[in-house]
């Protein structure tokens, strides 16, 4: 068990592409840290550098107090779970799990004892003689975990280990991995692009974009207090709605409507007053927009909106809306998918909402949940 | 009426696949099966082909062949020639494939090597035979280099000395045949997921351990299939040996194919030649059955 510390880590490829820029990250002993970001943000590269599969261009990397930058992967005392699991198809489950012990020249009896222990923990005992091809996705995933566990490493590195599973199994494995990590207490760094995994599994989440670390915080803090518009847009599903408006006195005005801000909003953000008379980006999450005709929406101020389409999910309705305001791009390449051609906002309504596609409605807005960002830097105000 | 229509439709459906197969079946029947059956029947006849009304000979020709020491010598030569060829084709093919697949070698150099290594494959057997006859001549390049390096003291007549001839033709055949293995194994190597090696790196595998525990097991299906095919093909090699040594000197490179050819077209003993051809057929058939069973088992 050990802490993993990255200091000013940079990674530049031969074509001068900078994949990671000045990454500083410290993962405490026994912590479960999630590295998350859109595709191409450098999260996998960062993990592979920690594993030693990718050279570090500059910076220092310590695992358990030892500088490992120039160490080969096997000496770093880490174990990795790959996205593809990388199970050897010609070996049985037993041989796969015992492979590192066999390489290390451990006696057969010891290998058997250790693998049996792990198989018991992972409920793989009856499958030890099977080949990976005969296992289900979830079982293969567990074998991959077993192969990592057998080494009793200082840290686990996991590279999108659940992305090959179907949705239902993913939920189950999410819980299994989380409880296993708690039980073993091994420092774990987990890469994912799925923000549900990020929010539910980790002690802390590090959000990366374009090789630059945006924010490291607990899931709750990331959700409630994103440091910039990108994190605000990336964390949460559907994404936070971001619009441009002008701060006029106590009101946000867009031309088509105005939102009155309470004193508390200014009290919490001393900087906000200085934007008076200027443009500002405001954000509101879909779950903080309500149907004004329902009980839940009555107490809030309303703005006009047109419903463009509705996704009825049973437990809630995802309502796509068109609001007369300029939408701001958070910089998350995946977020664009949330919006159709005609809509520029998304809301989550309760299932008893009766709004219909095409109708003009009054949209209730919980103004205590507004987020504010600088229109130039996109930093939170 | 409707029932008749339906049964007619069913019949059409049942016959269709055979209709599609019929052209190829016809060609195989005419060009492969018919000659095969004819040769088998010749082997049981006296004076086959040469006489209009050949009489039944029983196993006479087979007995004659099995009593001939040259037959046993050529069988032994064939086995030596084939086994050595397959083993070295595989070894050299594997080494070159690993080299071409390695990212430690400069990509430009790798592309040049790829072309160089595949060259032997572009030549026909006749050209290969002529090249090696020139190279291995007593006054040829090989002797002169070996003498300059001090490896041999006097000029060796590679193809004309009974001690070296079989090794020399085997060597030429090894040179001519490794690219098939190289290309197949290279394709196989490129298909092995990189993750396997990375996982092994993390688990602490050394280069040779990765070769033994990952690369070779992953390539095993290719190694076995190509080895069996190579074995079957090499057993029947004729032009290379015919043009370099013609089976000599003193039968030292006589293989089953040249032995059979000589029986047929030098001695005009077509019945015995047919018997010898049937022996080759039986050995090849055994290997082919083995190959088919292996393919099915996969």
UniProtKB/TrEMBL annotation, chain A:
Pfam families: ABC_tran (PF00005), OB_MalK (PF17912). The keyword Transmembrane does not apply. Residues 4-235 form the ABC transporter domain. GO terms for cellular component: ATP-binding cassette (ABC) transporter complex, substrate-binding subunit-containing. InterPro entries: AAA+_ATPase, ABC_transporter-like_ATP-bd, ABC_transporter-like_CS, ABC_transpr_MalK-like, ABC_transpr_MalK/UgpC-like, Mo/tungstate-bd_C_term_dom, NA-bd_OB-fold, OB_MalK-like. It is a peripheral membrane protein. PROSITE patterns: ABC_TRANSPORTER_1, ABC_TRANSPORTER_2. SUPFAM superfamilies: MOP-like, P-loop containing nucleoside triphosphate hydrolases. The keyword Nucleotide-binding applies. Keywords: ATP-binding, Nucleotide-binding, Transport. GO terms for biological process: carbohydrate transport. Belongs to the ABC transporter superfamily. This is ABC transporter ATP-binding protein. It comes from Mesorhizobium hawassense.
Automatic annotation (TrEMBL), chain B:
One of its GO terms (biological process) is transmembrane transport. SUPFAM superfamilies: MetI-like. The chain crosses the membrane at residues 20-44, 79-100, 112-135, 171-192, 212-233, 273-292. Keywords: Cell membrane, Membrane, Transmembrane, Transmembrane helix, Transport. It is a multi-pass membrane protein. CDD domains: TM_PBP2 (cd06261). Residues 75-291 form the ABC transmembrane type-1 domain. One of its GO terms (cellular component) is plasma membrane. It is found in: Cell membrane. InterPro entries: ABC_transporter_permease, MetI-like, MetI-like_sf. It holds the Pfam family BPD_transp_1. Belongs to the binding-protein-dependent transport system permease family. This is Sugar ABC transporter permease.
